[in-house]
Write a structure and sequence with these properties.
Helix content is 29%, strand content 15%. The chain is α/β, with parallel strands linked by helices. Helix 6 runs parallel beside helix 10. It starts with 23 loop residues before the first strand and ends in a 5-residue tail after the last helix. The relative contact order is 0.19. The structure holds 2-deoxy-6-O-sulfo-2-(sulfoamino)-alpha-D-glucopyranose and calcium ion. Calcium ion binds next to loops.
Amino acid sequence: MNYKPLSLLLGGCAFNAVHAQRWNIVYIMSDDHSYQAISAYGHQLSKQAPTPNLDRLAERGMLFQKAYVENSLSTPSRACLMTGMYSHQSGQRTLDCPIDENAPFVSEYLQQAGYQTGMIGKWHMLCEPKGFDTYQILPGQGDYYDPRFRSKETEGKYVVEKGYATNLITDYAIQFLEQRDKEKPFALFVHHKAPHRNWMPPLDMLDLYEDVEFPLPETFYDDYATRGRAAHEQQMSIEKDMEMCYDLKVTQIKPGMGYTHERNGDGFRHQLSRMSPEQREKWESVYNPRNEAMLAQHLTGNALLQWKYQRYIRDYMRVIHSIDEQVGRLLDYLESNNLMDNTMVVYSSDQGFYMGEHGWFDKRFMYEESFRTPLLVYAPGMKGGLKSDALVQNIDFAPTFLDIADAEKPKQMVGASLLPIMSHDGKEPKNWRKYLYYHYYDCPAEHNVMRHDGVSDGRYKLLHFYKPKNSGTSDSYDELYDLKKDPNELNNVISDKKYAKHLNRLQKQLDAFRQEQKVDEW
Ligand code: SGN
Ligand code: CA
């Protein structure tokens, strides 16, 4: 794709592109935030649990309705953000395999371009933060309550901070803004731990939504009838894999009570033990009576499944409410300090998430709920209320930031700046990508999602599932979906002759992509 410097983008602009040069950048990323849980996207779930502050970004800026990741998993997705490269280029294909230590980070380029840079929150990379003047990072996934942070000043040590992760991360973000060098533009990365599993809400929101019955997604009881083995073999089902203690906070569970899957009950007990006596008392005063009432009913079968779903979604949406509140706090700070006039604000997630669709939680698949990611962008001078259907991907963030910084896009960055889309009311330029490439590698691993790659043109999607090269089996198969006729992806049409033309076209694209990008089954 051709790279056009921003200064060439004139005419038909929603904002004056020339002034876009060297805005400040605030990039907010949450962890596992589904677009279904942001009311600006209009999903039925969010109607009962709106997100007014996130919606402010869409009202004043642009809602990207077809924003995707390349590899639906935290560390690989963060590597896409930081390097502007696909997973096979940076080496960060799974949660554990090492990133190419020579891969330059966008933060380094921004620093070279004269930006002051800060990174706050969940880092979850296997290397030290690079290119940041300031950082305050959590270890690994981090903790919700009294999380530990490490900065340049703590000499490698993590230090416990009293409070709730989402609030503390926002405190540090505001502290960065307060203490910044006002002579320089800044780029601030605010990476929330929330709403990652196991969805622990803040104490003042434990009662929120307790009376709300969230609607079940249409595909909740999907039987995967037309799909291949990956959908049948996954271990991310609310029914079979969600844990009563760790995920659903029922500490009263004991062996012999008939509940299965208590892999990580001690993990949750450890989280509770890290709370102060006051925090724990408050927590237990709310959850214990609810848990005891549920256990007294001796729920089984579908009644138990529905209870699990409601507990899961209520906790998840409480955690979202607190993100929304804290994003609002950060936006208020930017507004009251006149920073909205020269700051671009991006809100996204490291990937999407299943809110019970297909009976699942977690992510990883190239099916829409986890392939997609929310993306809301505000930039100074935008008309607001804009929506874009351009196919955008997380490899586009780094080029966008460099475009803003008026810095050249380095050759290894395969994505493209989003600014041309933003300056043309959401319409993509003529030479914009027509296909998205996706590749998930992390198997064997937790949740047992088979390796797969694929292409999508936004309407049709081809997925290729395969076993690792060294597994001694060449067990592979394809699936094809028509997203217009079948938005829930229930009907795999790979063998339907009527789709032969599209299958052929997508297969050629996938082959061409693998060849051009030198990527293949792994
Ligand atoms: C943890 C979770 C998984 C989750 C991965 C990856 N298990 O391992 O459910 O898929 O993180 O998430 S837990 O028992 O530790 O909660 S990611 O967002 O970091 O990719
Ligand atoms: Ca994640």
